[in-house]
Records
---
Amino acid sequence: SVYVSDGSRSDTQSLTVKIRDKNEAPVITSNRGNSKTVYVTENSPTYTTVYDVDASDQDGDNIIYSLGGTDRSSFYISSYGAVTFKNSPDYENDSRYSLTINASDGSLRDTQYLTVNIRDKNEAPVISGGNHKSVYVSENIPTNRIIYDVNASDVDRDGITYSLSGIDASSFDITRGSGNITFKSSPDYEND
């Protein structure tokens, strides 16, 4: 009610104030703030959730999640806000990704910046040429002749040491630092 008075007489008016609803932007509720940093170990499976975005909308509108930023093409985001890699991350190729996560009601949005740091994982050395190899040598070759040179690499650049195992390992020598294989005794076809 509004009252107006001149000191001796007054008048009154009823006033109703009505609030019009206004569409408000969704709010990202997971890890409040403008940015978030997460850590993922390299070679994690592609279905592993890197980050789970939660958002709410006061108006009850459906929330649509999307990705932006420099590295958005390396990730998927599900309809419920789960961020996953498209391909398994490899520290040696890329150790940091930058994303923008958007939660939208179709017209307004909230944004969060996400940095994904990849942790290095020690990986096994790889022998080039596959897991099985056949080598042919003539009998009676000298023991100092290299019959096979094993080539291996390590993406972590760790030092590589070569050794032998198996039923006939005692018949051969291998240079621990270079992978050169030689016979301990000159081979004789008639014996083996």
---
Amino acid sequence: MGTGMDVVAILGNHELWDGNPETGSQNSISDVMRKYVQACGFTNYRPLLENALWMKYQGMSPVLLNEKAILEASDAELADLCRQSVRIVLGVVGFSGCNLTFNADNGIYRGTVSREEDIARSARFRAVYEKVLRCAGEMPVIVLTHNPMRDWSDRVCYNPNWIYVNGHTHRNAIVREDDGTTVLSDNQIGYESKPLQFKYFTTRGRYDPFADLQDGIYQIAPEQYRAFNQARGVFIQYKDTGPVQMVKRAGAYMFFREQNGKLYILSGGHIKRAEHDIEYYFSNLPAYKAAVTAAFGPFNRALETISKEIKAFGGRGSIHGCIVDIDFCNHVYLDPMSGKLTPYYALDIYEKYVFDDIRALLEASVAQPYMIEWLHQEKVTMLDRYDAAMEKNLLPVLSSHVSEDSMALATVPELVLDTSMYEPSRIMRSIQYIFDQDVVRVWNDAVIEAYVAGTIGGPLKELSC
């Protein structure tokens, strides 16, 4: 991560192979780090971090605290050091102690790191993370890790005051939420040879770069389009260099580009032929937003309630399309046609195992142990959390939708969906950008027509929250 003359670095799992991709290193992690420090000339001004805290001060030398110094400092001492700094970075590999399916046993560190050390290293970082969180939770700390948080922590929520930067997964993504939660993993290079480039980010959390603009039709640069998506928490791959046409009206946005004299609607990095001129979309954007909100609002609120209940027993609760994630492998699908819930287990989009209810899913899942014994004195699984939440009546919706004759939660108009599982979920994801990012990515005149005719937006069956 580079800002001006500041360079802060961490190692990844490939660096720990120490130049031997077949077997890994015979050296310890500390020895591998020393090699990189000597080869790259890392110093306190340009540190290589491993379970360490780097703090920069105005007109003063930066301070680098290692794991031992962090844990031995009193809370008051550490809080005071953080409070006076102008930039704080907490850096570490992170390791994969909490990941039961992709960890040292799978050879991601080759022979350099055993599963026992993998678990222990994550536990050590978790102790440092909790200490810094306690002392600097209100400050804008940058948490720079190779592994994502789910690999090294059992925490469900990020600290909305902090910025989390990670890689490792080879799947680019951005999270920017209204409460300030920011997770950036959008500059991963992967295995293919690609030009390397630094990206910048703000510490403001989610924001709107065009908030001060009046309603209208604007021409913006492609860099502004990419920056808008990043600011709203959306990862896109958009490489076109031509100007982008932006429509802003009624708190909603649409983006277009012209190609060979034809107008296309931008959907992230993809394009779809526009059926009307840009003035049509400007004129009808308020009506379209109202129609979509009326048609899909009940379904979207149903998903949000499911997400809230999943989070209540320790699950992720992340929503994408018609699917709400419990964890990496376990999910709940809300059928937009019938309003029925389907818990299922899947490692990819091709092979799925469906269960009668969430309890049966968690009982059978290989990803069942969510809290690991080495992190807590008592071993607690996701299933244990689910049962505890049920006893406290925290899951009224999930508990009442576990049988074939259960009531439907909410449905969506059939005019925009087909019947396969992932296709309506993909369509719903495109529509959800209106709710989540105020961006219209898909346009269907039939939605406005049905709304005007009163055939959608009426008293759809909706769950009570």
---
Amino acid sequence: PSAPPTPNINNRATRFPQFRPRFSKPILFGLNGALGCLLGALLGEFVLAFLLPPPPPPAPAVDLMFVVDRTGSMTKEIEGVKDGIGQFAEEFNARGLQSRTGLLAFGDRFSRSRSEPHILSFNGERFTDDTEAFRAEVSRIDQVGGGDRPESSYDALAEAARQPFRPEAKKIIVLITDAPPQRPDKEIQDPATIFQLFKERGIDQFHIITKTEFMEFFTPLQSAAPGQSFVLEEDGRSGFDQILVGIGSRIAESIRSVSGNRQFSADQFRQVLLVTALWTALLAAGISLWLIVGQKLYLRQPLSWNRFDKQIIFGALGGLFAGFMAGGAGQWLFTGAGQSETARVISWTILGACIGWGLSCFVPNLARGKAALGGALGGFVGVLAFLLLSNMLAEWLGRLSGAAILGFCIGLMLALIELVTRHAWIEVAHGDNETWIVNLGEAPLRVGSREISEIYIRNVEPDAYRFRLEKGQVHRETIATGESLEMRNGETLTVGETVLTLRTQTDN
């Protein structure tokens, strides 16, 4: 058995450069990982279709028009609107509301200055979602004298109702004034006209910020467009920007509850968490199972009911458990972090590390830590591609294609880590174009026809040889005689029709 191989075999080993077999396993593992993850994702589509609760309705659009008194006594309120608009808008965004804001400034149309309503313009538009542009335009508002105490707030409300609100948007008007309305006004002779205009234009909410003694002039309009009333206190007007933020919070909350645009309820959250964990478990099990199968195929080991096939089952179950835990944790972090995709990246990086660690149990002499590192790198790169495709393609197609890339990256990185970190290996050549590699390490490599042999060769002794790496030296033991010989880089051994060649990173 220790006789040197025939010249043809030696020539063949010389003809084929070493890098050729080295790169076959990464591709094989990448493809197997992709196939396993894709199959898991296909099963996962049924899980999502039948178990996932209906998604919440899309976030409603909100168009909000401030109607602000711009007479001299309202300086603090105008500054407060300008300074507080960023946080005001954030109250809407935090609740998933797509908001735009506009502003109509008014004075007294009967005064000597004949102050007409002034509507801010944002590149020709009456509303904007750019808070910086809004601040800039508010800063340009010219304040005017009011003459007598009443102001043209009724006319201003009528003009605000006529603005180009989006048809699908929640239409909101917020009045801010410290004076009573002109009665009659230049256009509006009776508040009933505004009431009818609110109805016709579909104004959803009308909120009032004024002094207590003037509420009675405006609250009847809330029968047409429900809303809240906020008292404008003299001693609190210097901090109106913060008052505005609190008002924005209450308005946004009222829109959220009325529209039905809510986060998942507690029961739904648990269901989403469970379904996401199960879906991730199927992907992880698919990757684990097919990478173990790929390892067996790579080593040319037969597939039958024995210890190795039990390992396939145990590996798949381990993948299920790791995927379930990582998927559930990822969804929990995703929800708790304000639906940040960073949580998904973290969870899949950890999951890749778990898959790599588990696979090291089935790949001869693959170090646990290095396998975990390779899996983590694959999970990190793969989930980035997954998220990108999920956003670019149709939802189901993005999930399937993203899953395939995710599995490919994990399998590829695991094999590459094994490739670049090994110190010694056996190159197994069988037939004209069949060459594969088995790493040497602390665990011995068994050569024989037993199905549990790391180097499986049919039609030879069940236990022929054992290779062992000890203190940087490779020893070959003939099991039948117990003889042990030291081998050097490039030495070959012919077993049946298979040639085993020792390769090391050094010439020793």
---
Amino acid sequence: MDSALEIEGLCVRFRLYDRTLTAVDNVSLRVERGETMALVGESGSGKTVTSLAVIGLLGSKALVASGSIGVGGRDVLALDAEGLRRLRGAEVGTIFQDPMSSLNPMLTIGEQITETLASHRSDSASEHRAKALSLLAQVRIPQPEATLNFYPHQLSGGMRQRVMIAIAIALDPALIIADEPTTALDVTVQAQVLGLIRDLITAKNAACLFISHDMGVVAQVSDKVSIMYAGSIVEKGPTSSVLAQPWHPYTRGLIDCAPAHDTTARRELLPIPGSMPALGDLPSGCPFAPRCFRAEADCREIKPGLLTLPGASDRAVACHHPLIDSVERPELAPTQARSYSITTAAPALDVRHLSQALGQRGIFGARRTRLIVDDVTLQVPAGSTLGVVGESGSGKSTLVRSIMGLYAGTLGEIRVAGAQVPGGTWPRSLRARMQMVFQDSYSSL
């Protein structure tokens, strides 16, 4: 097979005032054409920094201290600004994690897709528009003709992510870097998008570097997996083999803390104790030792290298005491049943016959109103959780924003702990009783 991406001994450092921090340390990986490599780890493990190094977007404070990056046989680190511009999009398509901050709020969706096409191809404007329509249809966006004229803020989070995917695959690149591409997508669209990526890889004999924290998605989409922790790869091998029998305690922890969707077998999650060390405060030995149930004295003194074990040439692990025996991870202390003091018989939240219409300007300035939430009634008793589930665009976010009084013209009745919210507008006395965690932290902070 031909190598689409080959990274050898990559070390990336960031200059921070009077010191330098190592974000990626001696990372090597190879992705062949026709396959998907998953890069897995917690936030801050170095996954995104590794991917940004491939396309030359690390920024002025970053320094590639050592190593090499090859894309299709070309030395990426030797390319100038123009060479990198030609590489991005045409040879490497990138699906960024946050579509809200990646899409230009001043340009329509159509302008952003055709801009990518026009920068690499000399086709006519009508041909670029036709290609843009085809791409939106490929990523399952309804009414692609109308969507071309929308701005990013007029689309849901899932729709924006699909636009990002359309831009990434516009020029049929040989390598696709997908940085958490399904985070904002509902499960039905997620399945479609993962299928689309797989189909593209097969049809174009392309390769994919798939960055994720979701072990279920990794199992579904990837051929090989590399587990990263604190800037280093701690385990790698075929996905089926690594997930079936993880050798590194960190890999085992990632699998154990994945939630089970079978409610009949509900169990407490098994989180990895502690947190990842800061880049400027890494321990002298194995960086995972402070959180590891297998750690011994040698783990705290010597950092293990990534080595293959006898009889398994396709796998490697960086651990002094890999899980190749039957040692079980100790169970955490049982979680005590939660108790709640309910001071009122009224539900914590009582919503009756809520409806919400929102206005939207057409392409010629005419304002249209569309009913988004239609006659919804729900109750949330104190001490309980209510799940609101549906596809992207089904009205979930509009429902909770209407309950919070963020839209004008909300119809229906809203009560919090028995107190009625007058006209859907929250008085200051009730604001502290209810808070909201928004979907997109970047546009909310």
